[in-house]
Amino acid sequence: MRTDQPQTIYLSEYKVPAYLVEQIELRFELFEDGARVHSTLTVRRNPESQETGKPLELDGDSLKLESVALNGETLESTAYEDRGDKLVVPDVPEQFQLAVVTWIEPQNNTRLEGLYKSSGMFCTQCEAEGFRCITYYPDRPDVMARFRTRIEADKSAYPVLLSNGNPVEQGDLDNGRHFVTWEDPFPKPSYLFALVAGDLVEKRDSFTTCSGRDIDLRMYVEPRNSEKCDFAMDSLKRAMRWDEEVYGREYDLDIFMIVAVDDFNMGAMENKGLNIFNSSCVLASQETATDAIFQRIEAIVAHEYFHNWSGNRVTCRDWFQLSLKEGFTVFRDAQFSADEGSPTVKRIEDATLLRTAQFAEDAGPMAHPVRPASYIEIGNFYTLTIYEKGEEVVRMIHNLLGSEMFRKGSDLYFERHDGQAVTTDDFVKAMEDASGRDLTQFRLWYEQAGTPVLNVEDDFDAEQGVYRLTIRQTVPDTPGQTNKKPQHIPFALGLLDSNGDALPLNMDAAETDAPTERVLEITGAEHRFEFYGLDEKPVPSLLRDFSAPVRVHYPWAREQLLFLMSHDPDGFNRWDAGQRLAIDVIQSLIGHDDETEIEPRLVESYRGLLNNDSLDQALVAKMLQLPSENYLVELSEQADVPSIHHARERVLLHLANALRDDLLACYQRNNQAGEYELTSDAIARRSLKNIALGWLLHIGDEEALALATEQFQNADNMTDRLGALRALVNSGFDQERTEALDAFYEQFQHDPQVVEMWFSVQSASHKTGQLPHIRHLLGHEAFDWKNPNKVRSVVGAFAGQNLPAFHNPDGSGYEFLAEVICRLDDSNPQIAARLVTPLSRWKKFAPTYSEQMKKALESIRDKEALSKDVYEVVHKSLAD
Ligand code: TRP
Ligand code: ZN
Q1: Which residues of the chain have pLDDT under 50?
Q2: Which CATH architecture is the domain 562-878 placed in?
Q3: Active-site residue (options: 113, 304, 392, 634)
């Protein structure tokens, strides 16, 4: 067990830096057995710091210090203190140059923070605190410096040498080595530093900005991936144009580079001028990537590009402000994706993620505000709350202000804070100043954790023709936060009459020409709203387009939900009504025997959907998907996974059996030959077709088996091939499943991204993903413990998606996960800590499960030399 307790960092203890770095000159000597890093800092005391006379303290991690020189004079080892995680130099003048030489071992860096090697190339990941694994430095985002970086390496093994900014010098050296020097004219925090060295092919394109400047666009990938760059490049150009048009943001350097690396802890990183991507989030071709992956690539390429303004030009003062750049940038990429595809479907996908996973986080032991007040390991705070709830908070500001005022606010924010490291409060202030709106109460969204709950009641006064809505708000307690204040919630609403027509929302008896949709502003604990001039009790359409990240409780009758499913003009709420109905039906079966009748109207409403060709087919495809097991767990008190799984399965089988002919017709209708297209309509057709196929195979339909086999073998794109494979894997056709899995591996074994899909299809399926098979996959030749994507595609998919197998009542799934976490903790603590999430939710489950989950957590807690990453998540999970 670990004896030293990792330190907690508090926002309240923030102090401006005592020293500022004006310039950093780096020289990297890259070798096979390590790298020597020469760093020369031009430092001056910060006039704004109160801490006069404080020694210079630089952060470091896993560094071997070789020498320190002050103003050109090498220091005796008594003139500084090397504490490992800090280099302290007590006597420094007002201004000086400090030269530090360190030795590091990228080839042994399995944490993938700092400088490391991935399939033979050198690359970096510095956010949040990786730069300190490269050299001693004030590694905090409010220290911004100009970087000049010289990279030296063997010319034949590493012909391509990249860093931020523009190349200013290059040449050959002795012993077959060469160098390139890069200069970044924009001062930046160390977390945005990047370096890449490797044998990479270059893909070039160009973009002309709104002011007529030509930007060189380059992608660097391993030669085997040279045919998988086009889509990302195209997405980049569309994102660049979009940011000019929608936000008035022009790109600022002459070059913009993207590099793909196989070993990466997250999705991608916005390093200035040199974005580095996880291969799985950037490389794609029709034959190897599904529609969902294309959409993910488009969103992530845009996200990282948008960071150039929301993150790089204006950055975070400290890591408590992480959502300043992430929440805003996710909002920007979501707007972009909505504009490029189907806005309703994008909203449904985002709301699904938020309600399934972020609500769970907000109700669990790791709950934290969008702007946290403390942390132990910042790597644990790249969360759904920071990103996704942070996005919702920006979206609410957008909706409260309207697009025009929001744009004024963002213009003011960028203009006022360009080149600065600022806080979420500065962002809100710019929005306030530009719009004249008071967002004082709104700021609670940044400070209070927990998902607000709105309890809605209504009644109709037939005599007066008045419809009354009562809305009560509560914000639940979360660890360390109780008795919270009511928040400012934009609540979009419409009312429908019995024909399905939108009613005018007349809130003032004298009003004429009232709008049919309003955004009510909930600010207190209780509100009453009255709507006049109505002839009958209307059907309410609540929280349209998911106008706030809250839970809404209203005593829905099934007729109302069925009615909204086919009449609500708000696409999001049509879908949501269907989800609520399906949830209600599934929940009513949990714990009942198989004789219990399944709501007959459900079949009819799904039949209507399957045959509806007037509705956006992308929306239809979403509406056909039953709520996930994860969401059903999130909605329950003491989840019993086998019962939830069984009830959901019953509904699925019931629907598929009753709708067999409609499903087959839907498949045929949408199985059109022709060129592969990535339009939203073509994507919707493939999605519908593959849903139909999946349902039909689920009920063992022989005709569908023939269709699936044919589609699996002859598909000209991965969406269809994987759709057929997934349907086969989840079916009862054992032999065909095995044959298809073998054939698929045989065909794609040389493509790591496809092999990852092959792993996760099996691991996420309750048909194939039982523990013995998971262990078998861990021993497979393509599995690699050092590669986070492989770990995620087997272990992550098993514990996160395959609920019936993970929650095996014998506890074996939990023990297995604990064992994997302990193993990974020694090599990659960030990845290990993320895998704790499924166990951290132990209190949500019925006692037989929760007790065993807790035991698994305790076994991790008792491991020797636990990283602070895993320490924080496990200890917070076990705290009461
Ligand atoms: N800033 C990155 C993004 O959201 C996130 C990121 C990439 C990251 N790699 C990381 C965060 C490693 C922590 C550790 O765009
Ligand atoms: Zn980001």
Answers
A1: 1
A2: Alpha Horseshoe (1.25)
A3: 304
